[in-house]
Design goal:
474 residues; Rossmann fold; elongated; ATP hydrolysis activity; ExeA_AAA_ATPase_DNA-bind; AAA+ ATPase domain-containing protein
């Protein structure tokens, strides 16, 4: 649904296990190394545990993909507490025992199977998923089957994967003999914040998008809400992308993530963290997030070929189509919000409008004006530069924006860069505003008063003048 809008080749946060999406953060990298160690060292039993949704099945699928050529593998995924014996399921996992033999005949058939694999110099790997459902009797059955490993090099290796209850089960006194045969075990812990952020970015990359969609504050909120559980991260991110698509938001902020989380939590089914994880941001954090959103927009506008994309081309879908709203309407809403001093809200609207190539020049100029009004001069200068990159040719408006850029650079103390732009303006329009005067003063390095830096020769605010000019330009 939202794939084309966000320029994705496929949905990045589906729940189905997919080794292509495996993120090798600290905990999963160590888990994979531990599993491989157990295989290569011919461990009879390997145990992997973790909370539901930690990616155990995906990890096992990746293990099989990387090592399947060395093993004859069988996988049991549908264990349940009502099972009275495992052997028929094991035979089916290896493609054996279609006639439902009795236990003695089934045991003999499995023994013959192991013998043939041994002669062919192939090891047999049995993986039992959701192994916490087995119970003591079925685990004892597995232990007895492992007795078929008679030679120095065992032919049968078994990996048990399950929830933390499996670890508690193996700590029972009546399973001491079994526990002593477990050579390798590992418990998957939830992600730390750094890995949650990396996980989200990784899945977006695999789905075909290099650029971020979520702000840093949004990904941190997702981590707090999900506790670093990958499956919960997937569900919340998928919902947030759906909400963002419905609102026509090119990037996802904490506000959208919070709305998605609140709605998903209403039914009490999705186990997200409480309201403390949705605490309001400080004014400084809000300002930082707005700056990040503006930076996202400027990077999108300046991407190679972004100004030349056809509205109907696949590459343009995410930047040209705005479900439920028109880019021009977003631009006009931004002007209205800016007029009443709501510069943070105006930033979001201008950033959205800037994704339309036909509005990129004017919208990015407005982004710069809003950032300047918020006291973020460095980011404002970047926005003005992106605005100029989106406009071809020379017009009165490009001269106005270049003047805005030069004044901003001058206020930042970047005199040489400011002089370069003033010289360009004088070449194109020699009598423009106070450019000649500023060139003389800056070239001779005469000190400028704070008042001169903020006002034009007519005594009015240069920012206010240009806001009026650009704001009226539709």
């Amino acid at each position: 649904m939202y794939e084309a809008f966000y320029n994705l080749k496929l949905r990045p946060f589906t729940l189905a296990p997919n080794p292509d999406f495996l993120y090798r953060g600290d905990t999963h990298r160590l888990a994979m190394a531990t599993l491989e160690y157990g295989l290569l060292n011919e461990a009879g039993f390997v145990v992997l545990t973790g909370m539901p949704g930690m990616g155990k099945t995906t990890l096992l699928q990746q293990l099989l993909a990387e090592h399947q050529r060395h093993f004859t593998t069988g996988l049991i995924t549908n264990t349940h507490p009502g099972m009275d014996t495992l052997l028929p399921w094991i035979l089916l996992a290896f493609g054996l025992g279609g006639a439902h033999p009795d236990k003695l005949q089934a045991f003999y058939e499995f023994e013959q199977f192991l013998a043939k694999e041994s002669i062919a110099r192939r090891r047999v790997l049995l993986i039992v998923d959701e192994a916490q459902n087995l119970g003591a009797n079925l685990l004892e059955e597995l232990r007895l089957l492992s007795n078929l490993n008679k030679d120095k090099a065992p032919i049968l290796q078994i990996i048990l994967s399950g929830q933390p209850d499996l670890r508690q089960l193996l700590q029972r006194k009546d399973l001491t003999q079994f526990a002593q045969r477990v050579m390798v075990d590992y418990s998957l812990d939830p992600f730390q914040e750094e890995d949650s952020i990396g996980y989200i970015a990784h899945r977006l990359r695999v789905a075909g998008r290099e650029e971020p969609i979520f702000t840093q504050h949004a990904t941190r909120m997702i981590h707090r809400l999900t506790g670093g559980i990958p499956r919960l991260i997937n569900q919340l991110c998928d919902t947030a992308l759906t909400y963002g698509y419905a609102e026509g938001a090119p990037f996802l902020s904490t506000k959208i993530v919070a709305e998605a989380a609140k709605d998903r939590s209403k039914g009490g089914i999705l186990p997200l963290a409480g309201a403390d994880a949705l605490t309001a941001m400080t004014p400084e954090q809000e300002s930082a997030e707005q700056t990040e959103l503006a930076t996202f927009a400027s990077q999108t506008v300046s991407a190679p070929g972004s100004a030349d994309r056809s509205v109907n081309s696949p590459q343009a879908t995410s930047t040209a189509s705005l479900p439920g709203r028109d880019a021009q309407e977003a631009y006009e809403r931004g002007l209205a919000l800016k007029k009443v001093g709501l510069h943070n809200d105006a930033l979001q609207q201008f950033s959205l409008a800037a994704l339309d190539a036909s509005l990129a020049f004017r919208a990015m100029a407005q982004v710069g004006i809003c950032l300047k009004a918020l006291g973020q001069s460095e980011e404002a200068a970047t926005a003005f530069q992106k605005s100029l990159q989106a406009q071809r040719g020379i017009s009165a408006d490009t001269i106005q924006v270049r003047y805005l850029l030069a004044r901003t650079l001058e206020s930042l103390g970047r005199i040489e860069s400011a002089l370069e732009h003033y010289r360009w303006i004088r070449r194109e329009e020699p009598a423009f505003k106070d450019v000649a005067e500023r060139l003389d003063r800056l070239s001779s390095r005469r000190p400028a008063s704070t008042r001169d830096g903020e006002h034009g020769s007519d005594g009015s605010s240069w920012m206010a003048q240009l806001q009026r000019i650009l704001g009226a330009s539709k």
